[in-house]
Amino acid sequence: MKRLIVITGPTGVGKTRVAIEVATALGCEIVSADSRQVYRGIPIGTAAPTADERVRVCHHLVDFLPLDAEYGAWQYERDALSVLSSLWRRGDTAVLCGGSMMYVDAVCRGIDPMPSISEAVREAVLSRLAADGLEALLEELREADPEYYAQVDKRNPRRVAHAVEVCRQAGVPYSSLRRGVAARRDFEVVKVALNVPREELFGRINRRVDAMLAQGLVEEARSVQGLRHLNSLNTVGYKELFAWMDGAMDFDTAVSRIKKNTRVYAKKQLTWLRRDPSVRWLSPDDWGELLV
What we know:
By secondary structure, this protein is α/β, with parallel strands linked by helices. The chain contains twelve helices and six strands.
């Protein structure tokens, strides 16, 4: 039976290093599960594997899309399964590495089929969001799909807008199309979440932000500032630096916000993972247990 070793966990915990060690030891390749590393031109802010790391182990689904590409979990599921199909012809094991939990679930459990959203519907929803604000879309969602309204992250305009788009396009509640039933896979999934004590994790995150700045994060953000309206750049690190560039805050405040918002994101990732009974928790230093 083919085996997919999934290495996930909060940002900054050391997933890339562990994935490379495991893949090297097992002689297999890595499929990235990161919703921002798919884009070209922002390797520092997304902590993408370096050129040396990609020489050491072949990484798939990294750095292959322009910043203006529309890409989401269902496209990722399609692409990741296609890559895995190719890898299974060359070996029995592959590693999936990343902290974008919807992408991880897309491969392990599958994404519910949704209607393709027409350009007219998408533009209409985005226009209403811009003109009337998030509250207007939330009210529309409450009327069209009270079940999903009760559980959606009401501070996430992208998620709210997507649900409204589906309701408009399909003519039925978004929640009615979400089966919640795992798809059958023809490979075994071994899902591991890396974690360390919270104080250590937060220290790692703070040091990684400092390292990104030393590597040229500010210059990278300047190079894409003109594209800041794109969803690919609606990302911790870039948002705060764009605000600094606009004069909305000083540099030290921007850096402090990057660290704080990254820590908040890490806590959300941990919350998601703790709801998953299939996860096996492991310290990054104990990765050798995956070779047994």
